[in-house]
Specification:
heterotrimer; A alpha/beta; B mainly alpha; C mainly alpha; A: alpha/beta; Rossmann fold; 2 domains; six-stranded parallel beta sheet; six-stranded mixed beta sheet; 12 strands; C: mainly alpha
Chain lengths: ~350, ~300, ~375
């Protein structure tokens, strides 16, 4: 399979450059970030999305201006807490990122002891009322909605299968958005489309995720989607069938899944990172909560040009247009992804 | 409602889910029958899963993948045998050590050699001619539309049962696990038998890993087995050290697992946590009602030294 | 006579040196193997091992971190001592820790009106009971239903995780999380439910100062280890438990109720693991949170405690140094990962190698002990 580079939106690129400038010039010492994440940097999902983002920021700002250290595989919360504390105590880092909603409690304990150091964590919105803690999250329901809407249009059996880890946080938002997207399409076309959701209660059981996919298929699903790192098992199942299509989220799964991948919602945390860094330049260490959205370019809808369902270049362009319309609709607020957002 | 739940798909699903457990648990049965508890099954599975995946990824040869899984399994089994038989190490600890080693090492090699999850073609589904078309009760779909490693797993059960129960080798294995002193007096080399069974168990575990990485999932990722090796050890106890009952345990566990997936998929509203719990709970309950008392090999976990 | 006893005493010193020497050699061998691996990963083994030392024993804070890590291992480990001595193989430490943590946290949150001492005591006691009940399930199943405890404890670990997720996503969930995100975590326990840090204890404040995370839970673990020693070797109950573990049939002939002793061993082992869980919350994390696995909370202490207990010769006095050793290894390795930026997986593999190597050399100690016993026997005949 040909390697596909991410199509970073021009908006995003411009924004990154614009924000990068003041930081790069204002500082002689490189801006130093330390990040801790639960799974591996190559998980094609949550941890990788942050690793890729830090790499992107570094490419943008240059290695002289931005350096980072990334500790992966810290699924034990207490180990992560000790790492964060040591980083803070060392004073070597300007910003410490705890990439995982399970780290919040640890951060709440540690951050007050180091008021001069900036912390960020996600995905969540809670800054604990602390001036040096930023929270960040992804509006993954937005991409979920678009994925769902397109999936509704693609399904022939009118059954779609969703595989999730546990029904919390980022996964829940994505799945809820996806369901809303399918429902919106179904309403538009006045048909009935069933979305079967299966939370397998594990982030790591690849085999169970694969079998959940098989179960979806034996219940007539012809489109699958899912979130978190264990879904590679489900993608494998779709691949073997050949006529089952996959919608990805978090990181791009196109290279892994090949031509059965329709599109991915790709996270660009660099947008949030640049905002946090820019605010820090102004002396604001935290207290705010950030979000990557379609609007600010932090969420990118990456369509796979090699998708098997495209019969011609035109199909690809049509889907691009359709997706753009949905993006515009969500950005403009014409499309309400999830009703009654409580914020 | 039962029509909706007890579909042929669910039974087929159960058979696929059971496959890695069958390999690993049958292999472990040999070791335990001879008196050696190997808690490191999951570690060997992971190493077998990675090694076979990498071999297939690089060469596209399924045969080589299987051979590599057997080789890696045998080496780690041999190592475990050396620690627990020759060095008489506490088997519970050495197994946990082996597990940690396999867990870490397989991931390390994965990161260094592959870098990111990739997929291989692996074992294709092989529909058995005629049988796979059987419509009656969905038998064709349930039993005869799987990949070769699934068929092999089920074939190994009667073979293993035969070897354990009706051959001299099996007799020696049982004797060594039941009463090593007596076996030794009869001229059976306790050490040699245990080396054999633990190495064989390692090879089975290697196959168990390969059945995931190059047959069922066709992908490798860190901690691919997610603790299945430990469940396999539990199933050996469930089966009372008899291959056919081990198979029954693996099928029961996997069937309930397949069923809970189906329950959630068709949208029956029970908390996901309880659905996922079901296979674990029912396995315990089933064992309560399986009335036959099962004597465990007397010498299990006890190292043997002559002239004690 | 005096001459002989003098020699024996000298022997004893050599023996104890020897029993330290072999594990030391094993660890050295493991470090050499890991050094080769580090070399292939382009990391300097010297830097790595310096970081290992710095992170575990290099300064006051590292030592405190080592003891923090050792605390749950001691709790679980002494429970394992009781269980294994009673002939019950408890692999359910993870699930029992979770049971203790969930119940203890629930009390700490629900009864926050109580005065501090009472609140902490109640939480801990309830944590103990919950762990004991969770272990007791396996005990009842083994004693009265002939269900092997290895099977049931492995299964019960998974069940405990799901129950925890269910509760943390339901009745125990922090109210503010009940929105769209629904992170499975409890509220933070009030300050008076938190265990004091160790600097609030006289003497220890001079040792550790007031900046470390070491809490009084560590001292509880030491006290409990002593009590367990008394229980096992100075009471009738302990004698019965050991008799059952030593030889079930003989114990039965001696009129001991084997089933009951098995159940009691499991209750105690589960209870101690439950303590490990609740104290982890009250002393360190202050709230319970999960990602749907056990390890994010337990850090595998339920398993590592078994290793520590077996290394410690299934004796509480041996379990403590063994737990501290593994605590040091774990936090040292954590620091090593941080400093050299080697993949987390190397650390896991490294721990596995150390465990296998150290357990492998135990044979030399046992052989020597046996030879000594034989020599002594001969001498006593003279």
């Amino acid at each position: 399979m040909k390697r596909k580079l991410l199509f970073i939106l021009p908006v995003l690129a411009a924004m990154v450059v614009a924000l990068a400038m003041p930081v790069a010039t204002a500082q002689d010492e490189p801006f130093s970030v330390a990040a801790v994440a639960p799974s591996a940097t190559n998980d094609l999902a949550f941890s990788q999305s942050m690793f890729d983002a830090l790499t992107a920021v570094q490419e943008e700002m240059g290695e002289d201006a931005f350096e980072f250290t990334f500790i992966e595989g810290q699924f034990n919360v207490d180990d992560a807490a000790a790492t964060i504390r040591d980083w803070a105590a060392s004073g070597d880092y300007d910003l410490i990122i705890a990439h995982g909603s399970q780290y919040g409690a640890a951060l709440e304990e540690i951050a007050p002891e180091f008021p001069e150091i900036a912390f960020a964590w996600g995905t969540d919105v809670n800054t604990f009322g602390l001036d040096n803690v930023s929270a960040y999250e992804a509006a993954s329901q937005e991409g979920g909605y678009i994925n769902g809407f397109v999936a509704g249009g693609l399904t022939q059996t009118d059954v779609i299968g969703v595989i999730g880890p546990i029904e919390v946080g980022d996964a829940k938002l994505y799945v809820d958005g996806f369901k809303a997207g399918v429902a919106a399409y179904a309403e538009e076309e006045d048909k009935e489309i069933t979305v079967n959701v299966n939370y397998i209660q594990s982030f790591s059981d690849v085999a169970l995720a694969a079998e959940a996919a098989e179960t979806h298929l034996s219940n007539d699903a012809d489109i699958l989607t899912g979130t978190a790192q264990m879904v590679v098992g489900a993608i494998g199942v779709a691949q073997e069938r050949g006529d089952v299509y996959w919608f990805g989220t978090q990181s791009s799964q196109t290279e892994f899944g090949g031509e059965i991948v329709v599109m991915n919602q790709v996270y660009h945390w660099e947008v949030v990172l640049m905002e946090i860094i820019a605010n820090m330049e102004e002396g604001v260490l935290g207290g705010e909560s950030y979000k990557i959205t379609l609007e600010n370019g932090g969420l990118e809808m990456e369509i796979n040009p090699d998708f098997a369902g495209f019969e011609s270049e035109e199909d690809y362009e049509t889907l691009q247009e359709a997706v753009q319309i949905l993006i515009d609709g969500i950005v403009a607020g014409d499309i309400e992804v999830l009703p009654a957002e409580e914020e | 409602m039962f029509d909706e739940l007890l579909t042929a798909g669910v039974f087929a699903s159960a058979i696929r889910l059971a496959t890695p457990y069958i390999y690993a648990a049958i292999g472990e049965t040999f070791g335990q029958r001879s008196g050696v508890l190997n808690l490191g099954v999951d570690g060997i599975m992971l190493m077998g899963a990675f090694a076979s995946f990498y071999a297939v990824y690089e060469t596209n040869s399924l045969l080589l993948g299987i051979l590599v899984a057997l080789l890696v399994g045998a080496l780690l089994g041999l190592f475990m045998a050396f620690i627990s038989v020759t060095l008489q190490a506490e088997q519970g600890i050495s197994g946990i050590g082996l597990y940690l080693f396999g867990l870490g090492m397989s991931e390390l090699l994965f990161v260094k050699l592959l870098g990111t999850p990739r997929s291989v073609d692996g074992f294709p589904r092989v529909d058995i001619p005629l049988l796979s078309d059987l419509q009656f009760l969905g038998i064709g779909e349930i039993f005869f539309r799987h990949n070769l490693m699934v068929y092999l797993a089920f074939a190994l059960v009667p073979i293993s049962a035969y070897v354990l129960n009706y051959t001299t080798l099996g007799l020696n294995i049982r004797a060594v696990g039941q009463n090593p002193q007596a076996a030794d007096a009869m001229g059976v080399s306790v050490a040699r038998v245990r080396y054999f069974t633990v190495t064989l168990g390692g090879m089975f575990s290697g196959l168990a890993g390969a059945s995931l990485s190059i047959a069922l999932l066709k992908v490798f990722q860190q901690n691919l087995t997610a603790g299945k090796g430990f469940i396999a050890v539990a199933l050996v106890y469930f089966g009372g050290w008899r291959p056919t009952w081990v198979l029954a345990g693996a099928m029961l566990f996997s069937f309930v697992n397949a069923l809970q997936l189906q329950v959630k998929t068709v949208g029956i509203d029970i908390p996901s946590e309880f659905a996922v719990m079901a296979p674990y709970v029912l396995t315990i309950i089933a064992l309560i009602f399986a009335t036959k008392r099962r004597e465990q090999p007397t010498a299990l976990t006890k190292p043997f030294e002559r002239g004690e | 006579m005096q001459f002989i006893s003098g020699i024996l005493q000298g022997r004893r010193i050599i023996d104890s040196l020897y029993s330290f020497l072999m594990p030391l050699l094993a660890i050295t061998a493991a470090l050499i193997v890991a050094a080769v691996m580090l070399f292939f990963l382009d990391a300097s083994p010297i830097d790595a091992y310096e970081a290992l030392y710095d992170g575990s024993l290099g300064n006051t804070n590292s030592i405190a971190e080592t003891l923090v890590k050792a605390t749950p291992l001691i709790f679980v480990g002494i429970g394992i001592c009781v269980a294994f001595r009673g002939g019950v193989i408890n692999i359910g430490g993870e699930g029992q820790m979770i049971a203790g943590a969930v119940a203890g946290t629930a009390v700490a949150l629900g009864l926050d009106g109580l005065p501090s001492l009472l609140l902490i005591t109640t939480s801990i006691v309830v944590g103990f009971i919950a762990g004991a009940l969770w272990g007791g399930i396996a005990g009842v199943l083994k004693a009265y239903f002939d269900v092997n405890e290895i099977l049931s404890t492995i299964m019960l670990n998974q069940i405990a995780i799901q129950l925890m997720v269910y509760l943390l996503n339901g009745v125990m969930q922090e109210p503010s999380e009940d929105g769209r995100n629904r992170i499975p975590k409890s509220s933070r326990i009030v300050e008076k439910a938190q265990l004091p840090r160790i600097d609030e204890v006289p003497f220890f404040d001079t040792l550790f100062g007031d900046t470390t995370r070491l809490h009084v839970g560590f001292l509880f673990a030491l006290i409990l280890a002593f009590l367990t020693f008394v229980l096992l070797w100075q009471t009738t109950l302990g004698y019965r438990i050991r008799a059952v573990g030593y030889n079930q049939d003989a114990a039965r002939y001696a009129g001991i109720n084997v089933k009951r002793q098995m159940l009691i061993s499991m209750l105690l082992a589960g209870g101690f693991a439950g303590l490990a869980g609740v104290i982890q919350v009250l002393g360190l994390q202050y709230r319970l949170q999960t990602d749907g696995s056990a390890v994010d909370f337990t850090g595998n202490a339920g398993f590592n405690g078994i290793v520590a207990a077996l290394f410690g010769g299934l004796h509480p006095a041996g379990t403590i140094p063994a737990s501290v050793f593994f605590g040091a290894l774990l936090v040292g390795a954590r620091n090593m990962q941080r400093v050299t930026e080697v993949p987390a997986s190397l650390i896991t593999a490294f721990n596995g190698i150390v465990v296998m190597f150290v357990v492998s050399v135990q044979i030399f100690n046992r052989r020597r002990a046996r030879r000594r016993a034989a020599v002594q026997k001969e001498q006593s005949h003279v």
